[in-house]
Every structure is written in structure tokens, then in C-alpha cells.
Amino acid sequence: MKVRVRDGSDGPALVFAHYWGGSAGTWDEVVRRLPPGQKTVQFDQRGWGASRELPGPYHLDRLADDLARVAEECVTGPFVLVGHSMGGKVGQLVAARRPAGLAGVFLVAPAPPRPPEAVTQEYRQALSHAYDSPESVGQALDRVLTAGPLPGPAREAVVRDSLAAADEARTEWPLRGIARDITEEALRIEVPVAVLAGARDKVEPPAVVRACLLPYVPHATLTTVPGGHLLPLEAPEAVAGGLGDFLKGLRG
Known about the structure:
Radius of gyration: 16 Å
Number of helices: 11
Number of domains: 1
Number of strands: 7
CATH superfamily: Alpha/Beta hydrolase fold, catalytic domain
CATH architecture: 3-Layer(aba) Sandwich
CATH topology: Rossmann fold
Order of helices and strands: EEHEHEHEHHHHHEHEHH
């Protein structure tokens, strides 16, 4: 599994899990805005990017196993899980296991533990074809994923990442993972949890986060910022700033 580690000694390490269609690089602009002494861990999840040749299955529990192993092998001491969308749901599963060293969870436009009513079988079937071609990825970006146009290089990276996946990994999330109810697991999370939602997110809007996540992680706090679903790319300053505030709170 391809892992990128930036060494540092300032507080808990940050272990990042990307969204369905993303890669380790999804977080680059956020990491660039963090203090230079902040340790970070980025990786391509199983089936994506440089990890696309890793064998399946690609279901949520397998991805949670991977995330837990990355944290265990790359971090000595406390760490915070930072998950975006699908990566947020994977992070919730890992946090529910209460691994040693886990200090907190920071969720960015996360898939909630209880699937919204809008996640019907028809919706999931359509979603499973969102990354079939460069054209379909572009349509998903313009119509659903973003609140405004991304800079050219960022848009190119999203298209490239979305297409760089094993076929089974590309369909596992929309056909099964997005619909899985993990409310029982989420209720076991004990560490502090902060949630960042995009005010114009069409995938996981703030109202969905309030209804389908906050009741199952009662100690979580929700902050809404300008942007759509791809906040690490649309609003990296807001994500980095939210992370900084969260870490300050952990330090007391």
C-alpha cells in the first residue's frame, strides 16, 4: 500500500483517508497549509491510485482494517483520523474499535452512519456509473461534487484519480458501502469528533449530517463552511483551519 509520511513532532499525528474517487493527493493542499511540525500520513486506499492492484474485497471493513494498520505502522503515539466522505465512514468504523493512541476524529463532508432516505437502489445504480469515463467524471464534478469550478490542475487530478481504480473498488462503495448502516458502531466512538460540512454540498448536505450522523455520535460538533462536497480541494484553507482548531482543543 502506497503511504506518504511527513515527519513532525507537534501534537497528534494526522492520518488521512480519502473519498470514493480520491487518492492520497486529495489532501495535498490541506497538508501544505498545516504547520511544518505537524506529522501527517496520507495513503491510497485499497483499489485506488497506487493501491489499485491490491486484491479485494474492497468493502468497508477491509478498508477499516487497512486504515487501522496504516495508523499502527506509521504512528507512534497519539493520532487523529481525518476522513473525507467514504473515508469518513471508514474512519468511524476504526474509531468504534477504540484503537490505542486514537485521540480524536475529524470528519470532512462525511458519509453518515445511517444512510439517508435518498440513497435508494436506483440512486446507487446510477452512482456506480459516475466514474465510467472522463466525461462522466466531469459531469459529476460540475453537477454534484463541487459548488464551483476547480482550478485546472485540481480538476485534472480528480478526473485522473476517479478513473484510476480497480473495477470492483469503483462499484463497491455506491452499490453497497454507501447503503450500509453503521449506527451501532458509531455509538461506540468515545473520542472527540469534529465534523466539517460544506454549505452547498449536494452529496452530504448539513441537514443530512445533522439528521443521520449527529444523533449517533452525540458528542460530535458540526461546523458549516462555504463549499461543496470536495472540501479538501474546494476549501483547503477551511479544512486546515478546522483541523488546527480541533488539535488546539485536544491539547486543552
